[in-house]
Amino acid sequence: MNPKITRFLENQALPTPYLVVDVDHVEYRYQQLKTQLPQASIYYAVKANPAMAILERLVSLGSSFDAASWEEVELCLQAGAPAGGISFGNTIKKASAIAQAYQAGVRLFAFDCLEELEKIADQAPNAQVYCRLMVENKGAEWPLSRKFGTTLDNAKTLMLKAKDLGLDPYGLSFHVGSQQTSIHAYEAAIAKTALLFTDLAHAGIDLRMVNLGGGFPIRYQEEVPEIDQFTSTIAQAMTQYFKNNIPHIIIEPGRFLVGEAGTICSEVVLTSQRGIPDGPKWVYLDIGRFGGLAETEGEAIKYQIETPYPEGDMVSAAIAGPTCDGADIMYEKTPYQLPIQLKSGDRVSLHSTGAYVSSYCATKFNGFKPLAEYYI
Ligand SMILES: *Cc1c(COP(=O)(O)O)cnc(C)c1O
């Protein structure tokens, strides 16, 4: 356990629920990635946690940023990022957002279909564009493949079209899915990307950039491969498939940089077996699906929960949030064992909650306040 966070949690006076994030740990992960894959430019995926303290620290380290909306672009600029270090990476952008970003100096835009490409050509003349490919998301605990990306054939047509529209056909991107636990996912996607580089070179277009997206996993309940296994596989695959003509590499880590840096402190509101023989012990926390734990949908992300009773008898538990919505259940099928003694008023910690929690927090539902956040 992180000593800085442990000390912070000792303050029992702070009302729960809250998220506490160790910004030094974000820096540690950034430096680690930078050292392991020095040939790549790091574009932090702002959506994972857009807190100013994180953005400012990353600006000071020389990071670039992947923004998904004009509002995220604006946050990066406020944090001191140069516009040239921001990629507008969402493939679904309002024309007005493209125009605002372009006026602010952003010159790098993603797309995956003709309509979006035409919007970029209208609002951001001469900009650099990259096309997102559809790739296999097997091995990812939070897949992203159904909603985004296009086929190789269509990407080829679109890159040729980009040039006709006066844009700069700059590169290709993919995302192998978030919390990707298989190191082979990147290899297959790089192979696919290299094919289209060659194909387009024959058609007179020399692409210069590959954007490998995010996906690097962190530890929740289960072990995941270390980051050096991912980075060495990536470096090898780039050499194998691009030979001595390796393009500029962009990576867009979100979860990997901020996830482990955060812990949620939550209070048990109620425990009950509800008179159901052999039923689990229901543990209702003051944070749930609508208070930021959105990635528990489908019980996809399984947070580690620490209680004040490390020793003693355990029982099967179902874990839910405090709202009156029946969907506000975090874990019912996943076998969680919690202490028999756990009762209302106890404080529990949910570890590795620095990514995709504060940014997912729905405000106001059932009158609960948005999650409090501390950056230390
Ligand atoms: C969400 C997202 C990322 C970050 O993904 P992680 O799995 O958190 O690393 C990177 N790039 C794009 C385009 C994304 O949508």
UniProtKB/TrEMBL annotation:
Belongs to the Orn/Lys/Arg decarboxylase class-II family. Its EC number is 4.1.1.17. One of its GO terms (cellular component) is cytoplasm. CDD domains: PLPDE_III_ODC. The modification N6-(pyridoxal phosphate)lysine is found at residue 47. The gene is ldc. GO terms for biological process: putrescine biosynthetic process from arginine, via ornithine. GO terms for molecular function: ornithine decarboxylase activity. Keywords: Lyase, Pyridoxal phosphate. PROSITE patterns: ODR_DC_2_1, ODR_DC_2_2. Pathway: Amine and polyamine biosynthesis; putrescine biosynthesis via L-ornithine pathway; putrescine from L-ornithine: step 1/1. The active site is at 324 (proton donor). Transmembrane segments: none annotated. Its cofactor is pyridoxal 5'-phosphate. Residues 24-258 form the Orn/DAP/Arg decarboxylase 2 N-terminal domain. It catalyses: L-ornithine + H(+) = putrescine + CO2. This is ornithine decarboxylase.
